[in-house]
Design brief:
By secondary structure, the protein is mainly α. The protein has four helices and no strands.
Length: 75
């Protein structure tokens, strides 16, 4: 659960945002077929921007950041 607590934290959101931007920049810089990398980078960037965690439902946890944090702190 520590992994999800990190992802739901402010530091986790920043990390996801930075990773998303890095993937987008790398995909654009490499060009050619690497544009797919830029498209993949949109997912962590959107997750950080709109405060949701794509991996949480895999552990039967809420998708949204506020509800995820509430559930993790309730335990």
């Amino acid at each position: 659960m520590e992994f999800f607590a990190f992802l739901a934290s402010r530091a986790g959101r920043i990390t996801r945002g930075v990773a998303g931007v890095a993937l987008i920049v790398a995909g654009v810089a490499l060009g050619g077929g690497w544009w797919a990398l830029a498209v993949v980078g949109l997912a962590p960037l959107a997750a950080a921007t709109f405060d949701f965690c794509l991996f949480a439902p895999l552990a039967h946890l809420p998708l949204g950041g506020p509800s995820l944090r509430a559930k993790l702190h309730a335990h």
